[in-house]
Amino acid sequence: MTTPASPQLPPTPPAGAGARPLQLGLRQNAAQFTLLVVVNALVGGMLGQERTVLPLLGEREFGLTAYTAGLTFILVFGLAKAATNYVAGTLSDRHGRKPVLVAGWLVAVPVPLLLIWAPSWGWVIFANVLLGISQGLTWSTTVIMKIDLVGPARRGLAMGLNEAAGYGAVALTALVTGYLAEAYGLRPAPFLVGIAFAALGLGLSAVAVSETREHARLEAGSHVARGDGRHDHLHEGLGDREVFLQTSLREPALSSASQAGLVNNLNDGLAWGLLPILFAGAGLSVSRIGILAALYPAVWGVGQLLTGALSDRWGRKWMIAAGMWLQAVALAIIAVADTFGAWAFAAALLGAGTAMVYPTLLAAIGDVAHPAWRARSVGVYRLWRDGGFAVGALLAGVVADALGVRAAVWTVAALTAASGVVVAVRMYETHHPGRQTGREEPRR
């Protein structure tokens, strides 16, 4: 049975007298694109406020001894963010990108306050449900808006800039909060930074950000056919169910990207929730743990400035596969190392591998998905990708409780290597240099 198609992108309203016509491209939309980069950096900062402090808070202030219990905050964060990613894509198509972005910031405002005042771990769990919802709405929307603005030619570069800003801010905030926690304690000082980020992000999104949905419609009307006919079935009028199935299971590139995204965030959940505890158990200070917690997303963030653009030149498939394998090697080094220097090297390696994968996966989704349902496809991909936080938290916690933290790291390393094999075997190349689009011409 054919699922009824969701409402298509609404017609672009006619420009008023003297209005500047819509154009696609990074240079043509530089001001708005730059503003969205800043907004996404603030989104990343909201996540970064937890990276160093929260695992230690659970252990030292709330007395959590079981790894599975301590990772519940990542589990609920991942579930909330994954589900919200899917909703964000659908809402962005139906109601516009900007309202979804502003709503996400409104949800973020209470998060640092709850973390400061939490009298029990249950409050921390609730704060992370709100953080997951907020991240799903805000980060998904900034991704969709940047894809809307730049068009197909420089999509990898655009995603590299977006993710570099977000994860660069994660790294910087993790570093800053580590030093604040060392100097002033685990609460409230580290979370005051989050209050400032939420206020600034909400203000910029409500006042300065412009709607980009009309840019997606402009791109939808100017497709160049893909020569091999591979995407003939991915026409303009796919319904929600079909978009979900194509992105999750049926379409080789879309589904390969979805599983790789899930495994990537599975190992990120491990890095977030268990590695600070591993490092603390080896006697490292909070400030040194903060350095390690920051180094991984710092290399990840900065590296994407290069890898996103390189995927526009070299293609997506092998960048993704190689990145997954590099992450697996880095995790193996973490599992066997026991010194700050070795862990620092492995953290940098893990960041480099993630940088190869993260913007490239988003660019591949943008290559294949039609603009009429691209926001929904991005939402489905991010549903699976950020579901990896929940899977990683549960898997890593269970294995760590049964066999120890290092066994959990080895388990995740093996899964990451296997994910790279899936990409190498199943995914096809979605972008070829010189070709302006990886999608078919709309059916008439």
Automatic annotation (TrEMBL):
InterPro entries: MFS, MFS_dom, MFS_trans_sf, MFS_Transporters, Sugar_transporter_CS. Coiled coil: none annotated. PROSITE patterns: MFS (PS50850), SUGAR_TRANSPORT_1 (PS00216). It is found in: Cell membrane. Pfam families: MFS_1 (PF07690). Keywords: Cell membrane, Membrane, Transmembrane, Transmembrane helix, Transport. Its main location: membrane. GO terms for molecular function: transmembrane transporter activity. Residues 29-431 form the Major facilitator superfamily (MFS) profile domain. It is a multi-pass membrane protein. GO terms for cellular component: plasma membrane. The chain crosses the membrane at residues 67-88, 100-117, 123-144, 164-185, 191-209, 269-287, 318-337, 343-366, 409-428. It comes from the Bacteria. PANTHER family: INTEGRAL MEMBRANE TRANSPORT PROTEIN, RESISTANCE PROTEIN MDTM, PUTATIVE-RELATED-RELATED. This is Major facilitator superfamily MFS_1. It comes from Intrasporangium calvum (strain ATCC 23552 / DSM 43043 / JCM 3097 / NBRC 12989 / NCIMB 10167 / NRRL B-3866 / 7 KIP).
